Amino acid sequence: MGHALDVDQGFMRRALELARMNLGRTRPNPTVGCVIVNGGCVVGEGVTSAGGRPHAETLALAGAGERARRATAYVSFEPCAHFGRTPPCVQALVQAGVKRVVIGCRDPYPPVRGRGVAHLRRAGIEVAVGVLEDECKRLNEGFITRVTKGRPFVILKLALTLDGRIASARGDSRWISSPQSRQLVHRWRGECDAVMVGANTVIADDPRLTCRVRPGRDPVRVVLDGALRTSAAARVFRQSSTAPALLFTAPHNLERARRRHAGDRVDVLSAPVRDGGLAPEAVMRELARRGFCTVLLEGGAHLGGSALAAKVVDRVAFFVAPKILGGGLAAVEGLDFSVGESIRLNDLRARAVGADWLIEGRVAPSGRRRIVRRRGLRLNAARPPF
Q1: How far apart (Å, rounded) are the C-alpha atoms in residues 84 and 26?
Q2: Could you tell me the pTM of the whole model?
Q3: How far is CA 145 from CA 142, 150, 198, 240, in A?
């Protein structure tokens, strides 16, 4: 029994390796790896293609050919059981004559949820579910979050000093983090569907928000600018890229923004205004509707605070540099919780990245928090933050 489990886990790890190859490229579908094994030998492999199709199972079965008969298929995500733009993968597995299917985790998408497993079992195929389940779920936590919560999985990334500053009192922030930290962030950009910043970050830093490591690809760049304070000449809008930019603004600025960016590769959308800024949860719902699964939130302090207050942040990643500024912009602004109300993190991890320490954690579930007035101002009310 132990040996059989070790064998299953070994081939499932290979399926996960394949799935990681296209992480961030398969939206709106999950990234899936499939390995076909016959007689202890791998006879076919596949990974979900860019854009979400062909599916991994289809490609692996094509590679295996007749050797798929009486074989075992290892799939990191439950095979689809519904007709979309392609026939169901469970049907392809049945027709190929596989004897056994090992599945990493179930698909929560309603047309698939449990139906893929049931279809295979009705066809007389032996099915095992839950091999390396946590790893398989973690790989597609963006897709799972979009399906179950109606919004993307959101990672709040910040680079800060040891005393919690993301910029000096003069506004400069280049470079707080080490070259190794910045390279890792570029890799993350290549694995996420979108990277998001607020207007203040665009005005202060004029970032490109592209992925500049190989073999990465650019994410969609999202800017929140309710008051339309950013320049149409900002690099995030003008930078040559394979991915478009999205600009969210307040409803009353929508037409003006569209005129300003007419002819640009910029899609202009509106979101409701709350507490002086755009409502992050509404923005995230719209991104989910467009198929976005994972969003990397890169700044700034107001946007991070607003997203945390709106409970749309799932994971934080803070690159803490061995530097002390003594003043400047705090990492997260606009929040004023008591200790008892503070945002808690689970699954905390720390590791060295260059000269920095990367501290990561998952935002713990909590009850409703209240935003406390500070110096007579509510969150984002002093000036339009994004």
Answers
A1: 15
A2: 0.88
A3: 5, 7, 23, 31
Residue among 45, 57, 78, 333 flagged as catalytic: 57
Q: Note if 255 is an active site residue.
A: no
**Are residues 48 and 29 in contact, defined by beta-carbon separation less than 8 angstroms?**
yes
pLDDT by residue (tens digit) across 130-173?
A: 999 999 999 999 999 999 999 999 999 999 999 888 887 777 67
| Partners of residue 224 on adjacent β-strands | 198, 248
Res. 311: pLDDT tops 90: yes
The single residue listed with the structure tokens 């709040």 is: 156
CA atoms within a 13 Å half-sphere pointing along the CA-CB vector of 252: 2
Peptide bond into 215 cis (omega under 30): yes
CA distance 49 to 19: 10
Integer Cα distance of 346 and 344 in angstroms: 7
Enter the DSSP assignment of 373: P
Q: pLDDT (tens digit, 9 = 90+) per residue, 182-221? A: 999 999 999 999 999 999 899 988 999 999 888 778 999 9
